[in-house]
Amino acid sequence: MLPFIDIFGKTVPMYAVMAFAGAAALCLWSVMLAKKRGVISCEDIFYMLLYAGIGCLIGAKALYLIISVDVYWFTDKSFADNMRYWLTLLMSGGLVFYGGLIGAFLGALRYCTHFKIPAYEAIETVIPGVPLFHAFGRIGCFLAGCCYGMEYDGVFSVTFENSPAAPNGVPLLPIQLIEAFGNFLLFVIFTLLFLRNFPRLSLSGLYLCCYAVMRFVLEFFRGDIIRGKALGLSTSQWISIAVFAAGVILLAVGKKPYNCTKKARINNKNSEK
Questions:
Q1: Beta partners for residue 240, in sequence order
Q2: 195-249 pLDDT, tens digit each
Q3: Which of 148, 163, 13 shows the shortest CA–CA distance to 91?
Q4: Which end of the chain is less enclosed by CB atoms within 10 A, N or C?
């Protein structure tokens, strides 16, 4: 496919290009939704996303290293040699979405608590853009060949020829593109729900449930070796179960609708007086 691209004479991974494009799309879309609703300022949304981005990178890399212990920890090498190798991995590729999602949530929550921003309203404003960002990332995975699917010699199968990650010359299921399509669909659905003023917390809860189910199913069709396994399920499948449970809880408690405009908030304050 296209694992790398030359930009001004420098070789840049296409995954990084797509991730950057997805992050930009997430920011722009979230700012637009913030303007539409008028509850959280666009500046707060932007700076919250910066905090979330830092948390996302830390969480995605941390979970990748955790699930890679059995693959990248060499028993025939010393602890110091292993740590040096892991530092190399830390600075290279290898990111896990669920780790990034958890890290991003913690980063966003840190911003909201520090600057006294309503976390549920701020986070829900960016929820529709999360699957959009993720879709760009999965296209980047496809171009790089990572997170590849199982061997599949049928319609729509793909065969990599110069991938640094996927097995070359073997027909595979394009699971990255399937997940990208699913995320684009979630993006459309959750944007429509946001504009219809879905009850607070319910939007986040429904997203967690929908993505958890999609990811749990798609994991059965992955072919890459760094999955992590326990009791027949991958690490991401176990996390999907926990994420689904968290989504159900948010759906159960998310009952109050948003006050969609500043005028509505002012009227509420006057009525309380």
A1: none
A2: 887 776 788 999 999 999 999 999 999 988 666 677 889 888 999 999 999 999 9
A3: 13
A4: C
Q: What residue type is assigned to position 80 of the chain?
A: A
Crossing angle of the two packed helices 42-67 and 119-126, in degrees rounded to 10: 70
- Residue whose entry in the numeric block shows the structure tokens 């600075």: 91
Give the range among 24-33, 53-62, 74-83 with minimum mean pLDDT. Answer: 74-83
pLDDT value of residue 89: 52
Query: Domain boundaries in the chain?
Result: 13-197
- Residue 111: is its pLDDT beyond 60? yes
Dihedral sign from CA coordinates of 114, 260, 202, 185? negative
Q: How crowded is residue 8: how many other Cβ atoms within 10 Å of its Cβ?
A: 5
Percent of the chain having pLDDT more than 70?
81
Nearest residue to 107 via CA among 55, 183, 69 = 55
Question: Higher model confidence: residue 163 or residue 254?
Answer: 163
Instruction: With beta carbons less than 8 A apart as the criterion, state whether 222 and 149 touch.
Output: yes
Q: Which residues of 124-160 are buried (b: 16+ CB within 10 A; e: fewer)?
A: bbbbbbbbbbbbbbbbbbbbbbbbbbeebeeeeebeb
Q: Which two tokens stand for residue 237?
A: 């499948």
Q: In terms of DSSP bridges, do strands 171-172 and 229-230 run parallel, antiparallel, or are they unpaired?
A: unpaired
